Amino acid sequence: xxxxxxxxxxxxxxxxxxxxxxxxxxxxxxxxxxxxxxxxxxxxxxxxxxxxxxxxxxxxxxxxxxxxxxxxxxxxxxxxxxxxxxxxxxxxxxxxxxxxxxxxxxxxxxxxxxxxxxxxxxxxxxxxxxxxxxxxxxxxxxxxxxxxxxxxxxxxxxxxxxxxxxxxxxxxxxxxxxxxxxxxxxxxxxxxxxxxxxxxxxxxxxxxxxxxxxxxxxxxxxxxxxxxxxx
Length: 231
Description:
Structural class: alpha/beta
Largest sheet: 5 strands, mixed, barrel
Order of helices and strands: EHEEEHEEHEHEHEHEHH
Strand content: 25-35%
CATH architecture: 3-Layer(aba) Sandwich
CATH class: Alpha Beta
Distance between the termini: 26 Å
Shape: globular
CATH topology: Rossmann fold
Number of domains: 1
Number of strands: 10
Radius of gyration: 16 Å
Number of helices: 8
């Protein structure tokens, strides 16, 4: 049990799928897990552990932003002996080469967040786990699932229109949680990555409605779940 997670160590798997939205965590557990039980409801940050096929996994929400992701992923890695976390979430596209519902597998996260500096990581970019990404990419290729591997801009400021700085880093989109997740994985010698569904475009102004967003991410969730069978 930690300050933010009301679970015993044995309640949580060493592999965690991590959406931002607690209700998405609930939907994933209800839709895909067998014999699952709720292992956290503190602050309504829902977590569930059960079986996907024969693999025991935990689905746990992170909340929004680097600060919230930082808290929950740090405690999972440090206090619950979690080895792998895959974030599943949404991204806004920075390029017209990405359309709504496309899936992005994150290679690097770029940010001006102070999160890393406060933990001794003095850089504005950080890599995801190549081990996780290679497993995901291999599964996607074998099953004809189109994914785009690319860099992502992780921002602390949702309502900003100036993203030009991050185009020079070849960022294909923007979200708010990967940087803290990847920093925690690095400093704690763990592994993390992220799969993101394009929910809107800063180029074309197209967007998915909030009601469509839950169901539109299920293909990405299935990709994550099938891939972890090989971790």
